[in-house]
Amino acid sequence: MKNCLVVDDSNVIRKVARRILEEMNFAIDEAADGQEALDKCRQGMPDVILLDWNMPVMDGMDFLIALRQEENGQAPKVIFCTTENDVGHIMKAMRSGANEYIMKPFDKEIFEAKFSEIGLI
Amino acid sequence: MTPQDRDYLHAILKEKSGLVLVGEKDYLLQSRLMPVARRHGMESVSELVAKTRTPGNNGIINDITEAMTTNESFFFRDKTPFLHFTETMMPELLKDRSGTKKLRIWCAAASTGQEPYSLAICLKEMSERLAGWKIEIIGTDLSAEVIEKARSGLYSQFEVQRGLPIHMLTGYFSQAGDMWQIDSSIRAMVTYKEFNLLESFAGLGKFDIVFCRNVLIYFDQLTKAEVLDRVANQMNPNSYLVLGAAETVIGLSDKYNSVAEKRGLYEVKGAGAATVGGVDIAKPVFVPRSAVSGAA
Question: Which fold is adopted by the domain B3-68?
Fold first, then answer.
């Protein structure tokens, strides 16, 4: 079973994402901001990180940049999952080392399409 | 909806589009036709049916047929057919047709355009091998409404996230308000036509690749066989037919050969003919299911 860290400051979004990803056979951990996510990654890298952009304490972009500088920080696949839906944000995310990009709102079909796109299912 | 309404709808769908509903399918009729009823200012499907029985309501019958035959479509739907396209069909055809450097591709159930545009993107990505080639993609569908949407190349945020990798979204689309529009260079590669598969194919010309996915499922056995045979007649020698993952020609048409280990992919060897020089070359190659793992 692959591990997925769901990073989002919204409790509701984390719950919805967890439900879909558990159906897709992922083991889920959650973090409410980038700093909490980084702490969890330092204890053990997940296979994939579902990452919100706008969060308090440390946002998704700062987290991604910090993650990729960690030892083994290249290992996890990172899928942004955000309401930011303009080409500028998407390009910036991909240049900074994201593997895929989901624009909210999402559904199960989008998750399945994007996770299979980067070879996770 | 009364049983009479249901029988009536089944009959007009069969007559107008060849669509055969197996079982009662009341939920399907109800969910697809309620929006049509509302659009015509009516409160129920029964009311809609009653209206079609009065003269001069062909418009409503067309709307019913469209609503029932429209599929939701994804970019690169099922993935495998597009791998077959870039890794099997195109390399073979680029060799075989190097004399004429012309290819014609038909998407026989183009729906809202995702399939023909996915093929156009595949061609764009291999464009350095296609210098000097003239490749046409024709997309046809029964429904005028979906053809219009296909032509516009406009897709919702949901639609562009199903099957389309993010680098292709940023590479081949631009934002248009809440929608995403596929680039004019890709749109220009596809010609769309409103077309009913039950009509004569005479005006369509010959093709080298035919995608006919997830449309035969709506026809009864006899109509399926007849459409498959007529498609074969529109194909050049050594051409390819692609069916949906759950579809087959076996038991329906002897004009095609299965391509070994490529599920859903068929070849026409002769010019749509089952025999060449008196030798039957169209015996289907039966591939055991165990040999097709990795496909579909």
Answer: Chemotaxis Receptor Methyltransferase Cher; domain 1 (1.10.155)
Give domain status of residue A121, yes or no.
Answer: no
Predicted TM-score of the model (pTM): 0.79
- For residue A16, tell me if it sits in a domain: yes
Contact A87 B174 (CB under 8 A): yes
Q: Nearest C-alpha of chain B: how many angstroms from A68?
A: 20
Q: For residue B169, list chain A residues with Cβ-Cβ distance below 8 A.
A: 90
What does pLDDT average to in each consecutive run of 10 residues of chain B (296 residues)? Answer: 91 82 76 83 91 86 82 84 97 97 97 96 97 98 88 92 94 94 98 95 96 86 94 96 91 93 89 42 40 37
| CATH number of this structure's domain B80-281, picked from the four choices 3.40.50.150, 3.90.1150.10, 3.30.40.10, 3.40.1370.10 | 3.40.50.150
**B165 contacts in A (CB within 8 Å)?**
100, 117
The complex scores an ipTM of: 0.93
The DSSP annotation for chain B comes to: --HHHHHHHHHHHHHHH-----S--HHHHHHHHHHHHHHTT-S-HHHHHHHHHSSS-HHHHHHHHHHHH-----TTTTSHHHHHIIIIIHHHHHHHTTTT-EEEEEETT-TTSHHHHHHHHHHHHTGGG-TT-EEEEEEEES-HHHHHHHHHTEE-HHHHTSS--HHHHHHHEEEETTEEEE-HHHHTTEEEEE--TTS--GGG--EEEEEE-SSGGGS-HHHHHHHHHHHHHTEEEEEEEEE-TT---TTT-SS-EEPTT-TTEEEE-SSS-SEETTEE--------GGGGTT--
